[in-house]
Amino acid sequence: MSSVPDLLTLLKAGAHFGHQLSRRNPKMEPYIFTSKGGFHIINLEKTQEMLAEAAAFIKKLVANGGIILFLGTKKQAQPIITRYAKDCNMPFVTERWLGGTFTNFSEITRMVRRFTELKKRKVLGQLEKYTKKERLDFDKEIEKMERMVGGIENLSRIPDAIYVCDVKKEKTAVDEAIKKNIPVVAICDTNVNPDKINYVIPANDDSVKSLDLITSSIAQAVKAGLKEKEEKVKEAKATVSK
Fold first, then answer.
1. How confident is the model at residue 242 (pLDDT cuts 50, 70, 90)?
2. Mean predicted confidence (pLDDT) in 182-198
3. What is the predicted pLDDT for the residue at 172?
4. Residues 6+ apart with CB under 8 A from 84
5. Which of 54, 182, 192, 234 could bond to 167 as cystine, CB 3.0-4.6 Å?
6. What is the pLDDT of residues 101-114, one digit of tens each?
7. pTM of the predicted protein model
8. Own/partner pairs for 30-34, CB < 8 Å, 24+ apart?
9. 78-87 and 208-241 helices cross at what angle (nearest 10)?
């Protein structure tokens, strides 16, 4: 698939650099090529192969109307996740994961509705009747909720899959996804247990370049899926009009 980078591009992005030998999770052994200078080196042929599998899954999912949530709350991942998720028009979370986002979705939906309603009232000038202090409190609430649920404001249902930048960092989200049978696509560094991840992408999950390259590939797969979905709709309309 064209969204998957070649081995040299993965190498230049530092996708092959794993963690220190002492932090190795034995379950990641099949994806390790060797070790150097006290660090594990990830097998980039495996990375490429498994990224291709993940991208094919995502393309098919999106082509059939599926939604994938992008997740990355650690500092270096936040701008990357925001940029690519917005670029392919998918929901995202870059601040603290709200416990219950999957397992108590109705409660999260209520919070999102409150956020949307407050923004709307502000735009329409309906908050002007309140005191200066009250308006300031509303502004603070809107700002806080923007960080918390801004990326999932248009998420009307539980997503069909989740893309995760760091399995250890996002343990709560991964656990919730597993409970709700939501497929997990994740970058897995040498220090994680990949057993419960549906689509493992063995790669460096700390390097900005590695995160950017792999997230870009995921976003391209989404776009390819959206294009295919659009073509299906056009074909269906053309068939009906005949």
1. low
2. 96
3. 96
4. 70, 215, 216, 218, 219
5. 192
6. 999 999 999 999 99
7. 0.91
8. 31/188, 31/190, 31/194, 31/200, 31/202, 32/190
9. 20
Fill in the amino acid letter for 144: K
Give the tokens for residue 124. 């329409």
| Amino acid (one-letter) located at 13 | A
**Amino acid identity, position 115:** F
Q: For 195, phi and psi rounded to 5 degrees? A: -55, -40
CA angle 63, 68, 73 (to 5 degrees): 155
Mean pLDDT, the chain, integer: 93
Model confidence over 25-57: pLDDT tens digits? 889 999 999 888 888 999 999 999 999 999 999
Nearest to 151 by CA among 218, 91, 98, 105: 91
Give the 3-state secondary structure of the chain. CCCCCCHHHHHHCCCCEEEEHHHCCHHHHHHEEEEECCEEEECHHHHHHHHHHHHHHHHHHHHCCCCEEEECCCCCCHHHHHHHHHHCCCCEECCCCCCCCCCCHHHHHHHHHHHHHHHHHHHCCCCCCCCHHHHHHHHHHHHHHHHHHHHHCCCCCCCCEEEECCCCCCHHHHHHHHHCCCCEEEEECCCCCCCCCCEEEECCCCCHHHHHHHHHHHHHHHHHHHHHHHHHHHHHHHHHHC
Which carries the bigger pLDDT value, residue 185 or residue 234? 185
CA triple 67-201-169, angle to 5 deg: 80
pLDDT at site 180: 96
Task: Read off the pLDDT band of 97 (50, 70, 90).
Answer: very high
